Amino acid sequence: MLKSGRQIAPEFIRLFVLEKIRSLSLGRDLLSAAITFIFIAFILVYLAGFALFFGAILKDFFEIQDVPAFLNVAALYYLLGELLTRFLMQKKPLFELRNTLHLPVKKTGVIHYLLARSLFSPFSLLVVILFLPVTITEISPLYGSIHAAYWLSTLLFLSFAMHFLILFLKEVIDGSLIGTITFFGITISPFILLYFGVFTIGEITAPFFALSFSGPASMVAAIVFMSICYLLVHNTYSSKAYLDSVSRKGMDFLSGTHKDLFSRFGVAGMYADTELKLILRHKKSRGYLILSLLFLFYGLLFYRNEGGGLIMEVPGFSLFIGIIIISMFLLNYGQFFISWNTASFDYYMVKHHGLEALIRGKMLVVNTVSIFFYLLSMPYIYFGWQVLLLHTVALLYILGIGVHVITRIAMWQPKPMDINKGAMFNYEGIGIAQFLMGIPFLVLPYVIYVPVSFLFDAYTALAAVGLFGITGIIFYDKIVARNVRALHANRHIFSSRFRQST
Fold it and tell me: What is the residue extent of each domain of the chain?
């Protein structure tokens, strides 16, 4: 007799715990988990600090008198922002489905288990962290604690609905360029209409959230919507959960557990883990990493908070500082993007899709490190909230455009190098491309920023640069594919040059 998901869930949890405890890589897993926990806790603490003063900021800084009414309008934009963030960052749930499909367990029960487990993520805490303080201080005194709980619960269940909706949309879009553009177009349009004062969609949905102040109707509606989204993704996953389908297509959302930081990304992730180990173990790369950490203090030479808004008096220069702080490792590491693999280039060249996996693995590393430096730069918000805006725009440009620029320039006549030698007075691997690499990387955002700032203002120019980066993120796979083709076309030239050095 087939067991249901409720019957088998305790056994799945027990096996999951045993797998982690008995793993040979337990120490490394614990270290990765600890680092991840620190990053997430770092962000959540900042958000909690902002949330505590959210009501006061709305009243004193933005001069909003009716905070509950404002929150009802803003709720839709928060959910749309969360939907965008989940689409870019949220991964499909992982589970060893191929090891359970042959067992006497109902397939629907396994899907229920993995979907329920996927809810345990930092995204699920955001609504509570951001809106609980303002709910207590602004909504509860006016409408009572019960109705305040209805309002917060409505937002929470809608957030859960966004979680399941994104899982469903990712299956429907399935990497389609037209589908991705359509999704971003529909999701971003309300923000564009709001920015230019054309139409405020939040005013249409505000009465729905205001229903919470008179009863649980909106909360019940949110639960129903969440249930519909859950059933959609459940049925979609169930229709694809067959052993031959999993083995043939390698369904990422149902395959494997990860033992290293990037192993969930397949072969490219495996190469990324190897690359990260090389960076930490070798003198030259480790020296560049330490140098990049020191550059985190670069902003202290320029940022000031005198007069309350000095940062935005020269936003163009401040954007330059933000790019330098976040991308210093990318610039240093990117100089030798291909040269790092002088000794092993032939290995990647003869592997099936080896060069593509190598490029994608390296980009996983530099993108992750850039995000890490962005998080470490958050204390600069002490000099004004504009710094966070500038650094966010810088990060979007780096992830969307800058990393591709560095990758492509690094393919221009790479020089062989020995990664075991130190960085001090060592010029192996350095050619003219390495000296010129930083110029297009640093100048390119100002090709957009300067004309837009002259036509409009600094904030519009920053928005244009950020949109430029977001466009690169949307077309990430397409741009990577072009870089891979360029590397593949010159692979024999690079290989011959590297072999002559050994």
Answer: 25-254, 263-500
- For residue 81 the two structure tokens come to 């922002």
In the block, tokens 């072009």 appear at 482
Residues 6+ apart with CB under 8 A from 338: 345, 410, 411, 414, 487, 494
Decide if 54 contacts 134 (C-beta within 8 A): yes
Cα(121)–Cα(144) distance, integer angstroms: 30
Spatial CA neighbour of 460 closest among 472, 471, 468, 449: 449
Tens-place pLDDT, residues 146-202: 998 999 999 999 999 999 998 888 888 776 657 777 888 888 888 888 877 778 888
**What single DSSP character describes residue 419?**
T
User: Please, which pLDDT band fits residue 28 given cuts at 50, 70 and 90?
Assistant: very low
* Alpha carbons 34 and 367: distance in angstroms, whole number: 20
Q: Residues 326-354: what's their mean pLDDT?
A: 76
Q: Where are the alpha helices (DSSP H) in 53-176?
A: 54-56, 67-89, 107-118, 123-134, 140-143, 145-173
Cβ burial 177-211 (10 Å sphere, 16+ → b, else e): eeebeebbeeeeebeeeeeeeeeebbeebbebbbb
Q: Are 233 and 168 in contact (CB under 8 A)?
A: yes
Q: What is the mean pLDDT of the chain?
A: 75
